[in-house]
């Protein structure tokens, strides 16, 4: 069995997404809960790496960090206002169901 992905939700992600994932048994941390509000994107990513978490974001700066070769445990990205909360939860659920931790290392997944 694959190791299950854990998620970290970036600063501007709705708490409703965290709640939806948690109701489905998925391990989630959020930037506000971890007292990371206002921290640099590099610090957010470093936290996610330290916890072996895929970061979910709508911030294109994380795309830049990925393309610059910054190592990470996975980035899930969705363009702002392109999907509903339910669609985002479904997309993250699919990643969680199909991919393992090892498969997400240094991988960028678009929702």
Describe, in plain words, how this protein is organized in 3D.
Helices cover 40% and strands 14% of the residues. With 111 residues, it is of the alpha/beta class. The chain has one domain (7-110). It is globular, with a radius of gyration of 13 Å.
Beta percentage is 5-15%
- The total of beta strands comes to 5
Written as H for each helix and E for each strand, in order along the chain, the element string is EHEHEHEHHE
**DSSP summary: helix tally:** 5
Pfam families: DUF5615 (PF18480)
InterPro entries: DUF5615
Protein name: DUF5615 domain-containing protein
Keywords:
single chain, 111 residues, 5 strands, 40% helix, 14% strand
What's the topology here?
Layout: E1 7-9, H1 15-23, E2 28-30, H2 41-50, E3 54-57, H3 61-67, E4 75-77, H4 85-98, H5 101-104, E5 108-110
In short, what is this structure?
The protein has 111 residues and is of the alpha/beta class. It has helices spanning 15-23, 41-50, 61-67, 85-98, 101-104; strands spanning 7-9, 28-30, 54-57, 75-77, 108-110. A five-stranded parallel sheet has the order 2-1-3-4-5, with helices on both faces.
């Amino acid at each position: 069995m694959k190791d299950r992905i854990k998620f970290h939700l970036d600063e501007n992600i709705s708490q409703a997404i965290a709640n939806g994932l948690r109701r489905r048994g998925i391990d989630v941390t959020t930037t506000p809960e971890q007292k990371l509000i206002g921290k640099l994107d590099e610090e957010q990513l470093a936290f996610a790496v330290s916890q072996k978490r895929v970061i979910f974001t709508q911030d294109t700066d994380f795309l830049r960090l990925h393309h610059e070769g910054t190592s990470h445990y996975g980035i899930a990205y969705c363009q702002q206002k392109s999907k509903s909360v339910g669609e985002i939860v479904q997309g993250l659920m699919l990643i969680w169901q199909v991919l393992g931790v090892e498969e997400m290392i240094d991988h960028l997944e678009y929702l």
